[in-house]
Amino acid sequence: MKLTKRTKSIGGILAIAAGAIIAAYGIQAFVVPSGLGGGGVGGIALLLLYTLKLPIGLMTFLLNVPLFILGWREINKDFIFKTIWGLVIFSIFLDLFKGIHPVPINDIFLGAVYGGVFSGISSSIVFRFGGSLGGTDIVSKVIHRRYGVPMGTSALAINSLIILVSWAILGSNRALYTLVNLFVYGRVLDIIQSGVPSKSITIISDQPEALVDRIMVDLGRGATFLSGRGAYSNEPKNVIICVVSLPELGRLKQAVRDVDPEAFMIVSNAGEVLGRGFLKNE
Questions:
Q1: 72 and 145 Cβ atoms separated by less than 8 Å
Q2: What is the rounded distance in angstroms from the CA atom of residue 7 to the CA atom of residue 79?
Q3: What is the distance in angstroms between the CA of the first residue and the CA of the last residue of the chain?
């Protein structure tokens, strides 16, 4: 049953709210008890909490206000509205969850890891539905549009500056664990957004039709023929291109060995695969 545009919109709004709540929980349950910092506006809000005892939720919201003003004319309005919605929910629950300690965190490393896991999960949900939780993402988008600086470069520069300040205030130990937290966050976000790890396979075989038949029967995957020509033999060849999930790779290799042991096969990482049998292309 197809969902109406209105239903999808409401679902997206609720999903962004859920992601924001998960993010707030992860920070108050793991990051704050461990005394860790962070990148972007959230990192500044955490430093204000540790040094001046200012409420992290309120500070997160107030620090984002000038960023929204900066990006209002530069960024898609739908993105801005969804981000404001996510930020409001995020800021409210950051303060509502104050003092929550579901599990005593006596190990800073565990706080860094689990804080990163919760942040990665929450951000993947929010990004999936076209929003964000504010912060330096907006600044990076504006800098990219105005000056052509890659978003990753400007975000890295801004976050590096905030981490250096955290190093001076929190000390080297907690600053280094903050980097662990950010690394885990990035890895979890990448894994969830990319879906199940996939491999792109290129096969050159003298029995391409038999091999594709075997792939379709054994793995249930499709394949594509590309026309090629051997540089040494100067003979035309059919090059097989297919994509499989990581668990299917072993079965594919066995199928190739069974059909044509002399086949030439290249296995490459596929960063993201959209389409039938993989992530839905929307």
A1: no
A2: 18
A3: 16
Cα separation of 223 and 233, whole Å?
A: 25
What is the model's pLDDT at position 19? Answer: 95
Distance between CA atoms of residues 125 and 83, nearest Å: 13
- 95 pLDDT higher than 90: yes
Contact 57, 95 (CB under 8 A): yes
What's the full length of the chain, in residues?
Answer: 282
Q: How far apart are CA 130 and CA 205, in angstroms?
A: 43
DSSP state, residue 75: S
pLDDT at residue 282 greater than cutoff 80: no
What are 240-254's pLDDT values in tens digits? 999 887 778 888 898
Lowest mean pLDDT segment, chosen from 47-56, 94-103, 138-147: 138-147
Q: List the domains of the chain with CATH numbers.
A: 5-194 (no CATH), 198-269 (3.30.70.120)
Rounded Cα distance, 130 and 111, in Å: 28
Reference 230, options 209, 204, 211; nearest CA is 204
The three-point CA angle 127-124-248 to 5° equals 125
Lowest mean pLDDT of 11-20, 54-63, 170-179, 235-244, name the range.
235-244
- pTM of this prediction? 0.74
Query: What CA–CA distance (Å, rounded) separates 36 from 50?
Result: 10
Distances (CA, A) of 183 to 73, 112, 138, 141, 180: 32, 9, 21, 22, 5
The rounded distance, in Å, linking the Cα atoms of 214 and 221 is: 10
